[in-house]
Amino acid sequence: MDLQAIELADLTPAQLDSFLSFGWFRIQQTIFTTDKLVFDGVAYQPVWLRVLLKDLKDGKRYKTLRKKNCKFHTEICKAKITSVHEQLFNEYKETVSFETAPGLYWLLYGNSYNNVYDTYMINMYDGEKLIAAGYFDLGKTSAAGISVFYDPAYNNLISGASSAPYV
Length: 167
Known about the structure:
Elements: E1 3-7, H1 13-21, E2 25-27, E3 30-34, E4 37-39, E5 42-44, H2 60-69, E6 73-78, H3 83-93, H4 104-109, E7 119-126, E8 129-138, E9 143-150, H5 160-163
Antiparallel strand pairs: 1-3, 2-3, 4-5, 6-7, 7-8, 8-9
């Protein structure tokens, strides 16, 4: 199969649920699936993870992170990209070992001016300072995490892989 991708003109929440249930994932304003990923000339088989959040159990690491992060303020709102978000994304991407999008707008929208997804964001603040942000799309009964990034100075308090349910 290699890669299948669909450019979307519109998408209902129920359609997103269906795509997600079959292992499709968003990239910019398209949706894709594949059975092979190639990094540095080596082919890997992707593992598409789905988690029932209502069944998520707090392990020791999550409890520790939540306890450390309780001093921070979080908000959930409709997605937007500000210059502060772009700056934070750029600071974060300078510290990761993998290739990422050149900018946050490009990551979410590519060349499109229209977002076909019902996208929300989670912002985490230390006082007035934005220290982490995450973007996710809502379906009718599911959600898909798109990206989580954070201020590298907070690396010990926020981990992209582990903070998404708690940001």
